[in-house]
């Protein structure tokens, strides 16, 4: 039924799925959460406060990568 299955609907999973579909393959994208976007989403982690999950991940990068 599917030519390719992408596990995870984060930025990279959606990008991979788009390229695969553009090449003519039938693609299924599986995501365990109720939202897509992975770290690129904004969520209310503390009642009344919304955070970008990506901003936290960027803080984990080594300084030489950020430069």
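Sequence proposed for the structure above (67 residues):
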């Amino acid at each position: 039924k599917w030519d390719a299955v992408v596990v995870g609907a984060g930025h990279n999973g959606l990008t991979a799925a788009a390229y695969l579909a553009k090449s003519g393959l039938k693609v299924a994208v599986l995501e365990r959460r109720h939202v897509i976007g992975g770290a690129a989403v904004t969520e209310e982690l503390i009642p009344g406060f919304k955070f970008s999950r990506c901003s936290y991940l960027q803080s984990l990068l080594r300084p030489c990568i950020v430069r």
